[in-house]
Amino acid sequence: NAGVTQTPKFQVLKTGQSMTLQCAQDMNHEYMSWYRQDPGMGLRLIHYSVGAGITDQGEVPNGYNVSRSTTEDFPLRLLSAAPSQTSVYFCASSNYGAETQYFGPGTRLLVL
Amino acid sequence: DAKTTQPPSMDCAEGRAANLPCNHSTISGNEYVYWYRQIHSQGPQYIIHGLKNNETNEMASLIITEDRKSSTLILPHATLRDTAVYYCIVRPPNTGTASKLTFGTGTRLQVTL
Fold first, then answer.
1. 3-class secondary structure for chain A?
2. How do residues B15-69 score in pLDDT, each as one tens digit?
């Protein structure tokens, strides 16, 4: 099992550019979610999904879109990048009925 | 979800027990206490969780007070690799919104030689 994988590891964007952060898991987990972590702060939930075709907003959803067409993948889209979106982004997954969330290694995004 | 309060930082000598406290005075009857840790630049890692009984696994022990208003994570023999930020999280059991973990700022544990 590769667990939770995220690509790219690093990305630099200019203000206004769009991009997609990829997240995939090979554990057949129903739940997937995206968090962002700003320097010196804890993780904040952006969006989450309880299964294919079902998504919902977290604490800080503005400026981000998600979709869940398959169980394995949960991409996060930045529609028009802003400097305030400079952060480290973590994807996580878990199984229904399980209490453990598995996190990916993160994507470090810099928006200039 | 109930809020938690943790000290911002702690030090521990290698080989000694690290005791990390967490206050959760507004915890509800069905809410669990979870502990995750985040080693520098990595994704958070699950450690342990419990409801009201003390719990132990291969990584740590969790002691929850009888009134459930506070808990302590114990790393019995801390090593340099245990240097990380430790997050105490309180939330209801996995009921369909399992993806929602509310992270605070945690406790930065520094293990020293």
1. CCCEEEECCEEEECCCCCEEEEEEECCCCCEEEEEEECCCCCEEEEEEEEECCEEEECCCCCCEEECCCCCCECCEEECCCCHHHCEEEEEEEECCCCCCCEECCCEEEEEC
2. 999 999 999 999 988 888 999 999 988 999 999 999 998 999 999 999 999 999 9
Q: Closest CB to A42: pick one of B34, B42, B103.
A: B103
**Chain B neighbors of A31, CB-CB under 8 A:** 98-99
Strand residues in chain B grouped as ranges (E): 9-13, 18-23, 32-38, 45-50, 55-56, 61-64, 70-75, 84-91, 107-112
Please provide residue A83's backbone torsions phi and psi, each rounded to the nearest 5 degrees: -55, -30
Chain A residues touching B98 at Cβ < 8 A: 31, 50, 94, 96, 98-99, 101
